Each structure stands twice: as C-alpha cells, then as structure tokens.
Batch of 4 targets.
Target 1
Amino acid sequence: MGRSEPARVLRFAAIGGVSTMIYVVVTLGLSDRHGFGIPATIASIAGYGAGAAFSYCGHRFVTFMSDGAVGFEIVRFAGATAIGFLLSVGLAVILADVAGLPPLVPVAIASILVPVLNFIILRKFVFVAAVR
C-alpha cells in the first residue's frame, strides 16, 4: 500500500477499527447492563486502555510506519490518548451514569468522535517524522 496518503488513511481506518472494536467489546462486556456488572465509567476506562495499547503499536508500525524516537512519540501518543480517553469517559459519565442512557449510547458516540480526533492529532503531532 505504500506511504501515500490514501494508503495511510486506509491503514488508519483498519487499525482504528480494530482498536475501536476492542474498546466496544471490553466496555460492553464489563458494563453493568451488558456484562459483569461494572459501572459504565469503569468499564469505559478498561476498554479504552485495552484499545489504546493496540492502537499505539498498530499506528506506529502499520499506519505511519514510523522509525522516529519511541520516547518522543510515545509521550505525545499518551497525550493524544488522554484527550480521547477523557472524551470517552466524560461521555460515559454524563450520558450513562448521570442521564441513565444505556452504555451503548456513549460508546457509539465515542466510537465516532475519538477516531476522527485521533487521526488529526497522530498525523500532525505524534508521528510527524513519518508523515514528511
């Protein structure tokens, strides 16, 4: 597929899709309405963490094929992940825990917003050397 921008977008979508599915499966599998009885907020934290670990490896080695300094990139990736994490957990708190909506609602919203935000941040801020 190469280093072209369309190829990069396709690789990002594939890695992001798997990462998002990890988040969805873990979060719903643990949540009080769908699985092990854990509150949606805690389930979302676990799900996001599992997805983030896969995401870093996938985006570093597959999406952006980066050979940049791991120390530089992983710190920036952690910052980008923290933004997405806070968004997904905030949605779980507000929509599921406070508003009483099913956990599927904040999970669905986070599954759309976080990947879009992540592509922009990863491309422009995290894997900068690989994009040039």
Target 2
Amino acid sequence: MKWLELLTVAGTTLVSAVTVVVLYSLGVRLTAIAGDAEQASPRAKRYFAYTCFGLCGIAVLFGLYLIIPYFSK
C-alpha cells in the first residue's frame, strides 16, 4: 500500500477543512462586529467579512471541481 499518498491526502484534507472553517467563522465574526454601532469603520469589516465568505465559497467550488469527474476530464 502507498502510505505516503494516504498521508498526503489526509494532510491536505485536514488543512483545507480547517481553512474553510476558519474563513467562514472569521466572516461570521466580522459580520457580527460590523453591526455594532460603537465600532469604527464597519464598512471595512463588512467588506472583509464578504471577502472571507467569497474565499470560502471558492474553496468549496474548487473541492467540488476536484471531486466530480465530469469537470476534471
């Protein structure tokens, strides 16, 4: 059995899952603190929150691209 390939796939899966979760949670957190009236520059926080959501969506779409055989012909 090819253990190095198994470890590579497991490591890549772990890193990408953590990246997607961190991007999504950071986007949620920035959206929450952008709604506070006391905070300075809520527009910049909301912009970065939407950027995090966009990067999270791109990562999910790229994962689907790699998984679905029709797209990777």
Target 3
Amino acid sequence: MKFTPYAQTFVDDIRAGGPDAYGRVAEEAISSGTGTPCRSCLKNVPKGDTMLILAARPFRTLHPYAETGPIFFCKAPCMPYADDGTPDILSRSPEFLVKAYSADDRILYGTGRITPKDEITDYARTLFDREDVTYIDVRSARNNCFLTRIIRDT
C-alpha cells in the first residue's frame, strides 16, 4: 500500500491561481509551522513560509459522499510525497480518522475508525484484505480534514 499526495496537476493549477472546489482562488497565509500539513509534500508547511488555504474535494465527481473541506499547500513548489513509509503529517497527532471507500467513491460502512497513529498501517492492511475496498482516506480525528489517501500497491 502507498500513501499518496494530492494530484500534482491540481496542486500546480492551484499554485497558478486556479479555482478550488468552490471556484475560488486559494487564500494565502503565513505558516506557524504546526498544524499546517501540506497535502503535496505531506509535511507541515515550514514556519514563516507562505501557504495556500483552499477548499478541496478529493473525489472525482459530486455525490452525497464527496466531502469538501479546507486543506493547505506550500505556496512554493515542494517535492510531492513519494516515499514508501508513513508520511510525516501522520506523526503529528495521536490519532486519525481512517475510512475505506469502494470503487464508486462510497464510504464502506463500518470501516470508519478513529485510529492511533501507530496502528494506521496495520488497520489499512486489514481493510485492504476486503475485495470491496478500493482506497482508504486518512483524515484529522479532530477537524475531519482530508490528509492523505492510501492506495493498494500495484
């Protein structure tokens, strides 16, 4: 399995002034260095750096399960996350909301669970044992913000 960042084409479009999920240009703010996870490099935006705040919906189409919420990106280009391990942003909180989705982007009921950070990988492996699980989203357990998507290794 692999933790994935937001699609680079979307990140590039937002950085170039393109519209977010609500058709608006991203807001700019200065990062405090904590609680500001970039959904591209999957690290906190460094303290003092400019970050982009925008509405995002990590789903292909609009439907009742297509949650939209705030996310951050480093304003300056950053290296999109491509490591094999667990990303840095999943070490910054004691627990996260983990839930599985089907191929038609529907939440698979009963899979959503507040999961201690040290158990995310094991829980995701258990979920991927199910044939109906296409991907898994990891969100903030406190604010429900989308953080990263886990996909099967191909």
Target 4
Amino acid sequence: MSIPFNRPYLVGRELHNIAQAHANGHLSGDGMFTRSCHAWLEQHVGARKALLTHSCTAALEMAAILLDLQPGDEVIMPSFTFVSTANAFVLRGAVPVFVDIRPDTLNIDEALIEPAITARTRVICVVHYAGVACEMDTIMDIATRHGLKVVEDAAQAIFSSYKGRALGSIGDLAALSFHETKNVIAGEGGALLVNDPTLVERAEMIREKGTNRSKYFRGQVDKYTWVDIGSSYLPSELVAAFLAAQLEQGESITARRLAIWWRYHAWAEPLEARGMLRRPTIPAGCTHNAHMYYILLDGLAQRSAFIERMKAAGISTVFHYVPLHSSPAGLRCARTYGPMPHTDHISDCLVRMPLWIGLEAHQDQVMQAAEKILSTRGVFGAHGWGGCFSTAGKTRNPRNAQLSNAG
C-alpha cells in the first residue's frame, strides 16, 4: 500500500449538513451555516468579527484593502512562506520587505523587524509556521511604538496559542485557511478575523463587493448600494456547511493529530542525538496544533535523496516553500532586508512527513522506512547519516531550547 502525504478526514456530518443547506433553500453565501461558523470562530478564537472567505488568500487580500495600502508602501514579512502572503499586498501596489527567519521556529526573526522599518513601512505581516506562534509580544510592541498594523497569516494555526491567546486574536487582522491540507477543512476556504473594531464595518462591505448589503439585511438601511471597493469574497453555503461539521469536532481532530505528532517526535529524538536530523522546536509558552511534522536534513542533495527513496518505498514526503525572495516575482516586486542565510538553508533541508488522521495504522511503517534510509551506508555517507548534520540551523536562543508538552 502506498502512503500519501495527506488524506482529507471526514468527521461524519459534512454531507448531512450539505443536504440540510439544500433543504433550507439557500446555497449562496451567508446562510445559516455561515453564521454558525462565524459564531464558532468568534467564540473559540476570540476575534471581534469573523468573516468566512472562499480562501485564506482572499482573506489576506481583504486585509490589504482594509489597511488602505498605497503604491510604494512597505510590508515587512518572512520570505519563507506561501506566495499568497506577499501577493495580497503586491496587488495593492505595496512592496514586501523580506527579513530572515529564526533557525529554531522557522518564524520571522523578530530581532530583524525594527531595523527593517523605513518611512514607508505600514504593516508587519507574520506567519505562524507549522502552527507555532511567532514572538508576538515583541512584534506587537514594535508595531505600537512605530504606529504599524499587524496581520497574522494564521493559515496553519487554528487551535494554536501564544501565552494563552489564540493565534489569530492578537494582531489587528488575521487570516485562516480551511484548505484540504489543513487541520480543519472545507476543501477550499478561509476566514478573515478582524480584531480592530474600527475595521469591522468596512470589512463587511469589502467582502460584499463593496456594498452595504450586510447593513440592509440587519435592517439598518432600506436598500443597499455600492459604497467602497471590494469583491465577492464569500464562500457558498455548501462550503460553510462542510466546515461547520469540522469545526464542531475541531478539538478531537487536534488531539488525534497531536498524538501522531508526538509519536514522530519521540521516534526522531535518538536520531537527532546521533546527528541524523533535526526536530521541530516548540517554544515554552506556545501550544501548537500538530499541523505538520517536519524534519531538517543536512542539505538539498540529502533532502532530495531522502524524498526519492521514501517515494520508492511507497511513502510520500514533500519539501515546502521555495523562498519568495529568490522567486522571479519576488525579485521584481519585493526587496530583502539583509542576508537570508536561515531562509536559504532551511528551504533546502526541510522534509514534511505524512500527517493525517488514519495514519496511525501506518506510522510505524513510515518511521521504519525513514530510519532505514537515513542509516543506509553509501547514501548519506560511509556510516549513514550520523554526525553530518550542519550546525547552521541549530537553536540560537535558550528560550527556545525547551519543548512544550502542552497542546
């Protein structure tokens, strides 16, 4: 049997909800299930306003419009992220300014943000990689002192937290993803979380094609009209119906994923001690959601060989981002602040292991195959991989040397 990298998980009520949406006679956006998802997100994440979108990309685009970015304005962000993080701001004429990531959490290096600020800087956009929080206290302090807005790209981070606060509830705006590769899914889908109360009313208008339609349905105006720029960012009620079932079971989904994550982590511990790989780091004070389990190998050649040999064993493993600062569009539309050694190194070393509910029955097979490949003579050195892992990406901050046992 081949073992895929990802397999979408059904909790059991998704198709029932979809049939119910049809029976209700409402399949376009903002029906009963959409309102249910909004209420769930506002209650469990703590956002002032949640608005479902057809993708996380759409939520980020809405954030860029809401912040009134003008051509030439700058947005500080990591290069080690998905293209949507940058694209949303480039579409408004803004310039992404890439700074390097931390070698421990693979999140934006908060120590590099303030030196990158210029007179054109308007926004700091953070990405909570693998559902692990950025150093938000420091980042929010920088933003406050410089009068900047903070956007959380929390695409991977539902059910994760930072010092007891849910990710997505800390910045002025945040974006979630419900893509089929995420923990809680709707096939495609996302949400904009609005924490700045001054942005709520306009967010509703932008999402509704620039109209005040939401006010009309609340009885606040007797007709609705075009009042702002915007687009059709709503998902259909079918998507919301599917998502509502997933959100209801979100805590149990997270618990099962965490069990798989911790099995990987325990398996990798002795391999890390032998210098064969490096494991993820979870800072104290952060809880994560087991969005992914990755290992860091010694370089591009070793990473490529590992993925190919796992594929030959019938197991799909994948690498992740090509850094945006080295991409053709990144070279045209953005700039970097300072060197990017950790971003460049990590992008060559990282391998994502399969992680999906149902993998429990196959996880031993995955781990045994991986360990055999890493130990093979002649593939990763005369004595296997042992001892060859580079120190380039090792923890540099004692705060992050401690693994959290929480969530």
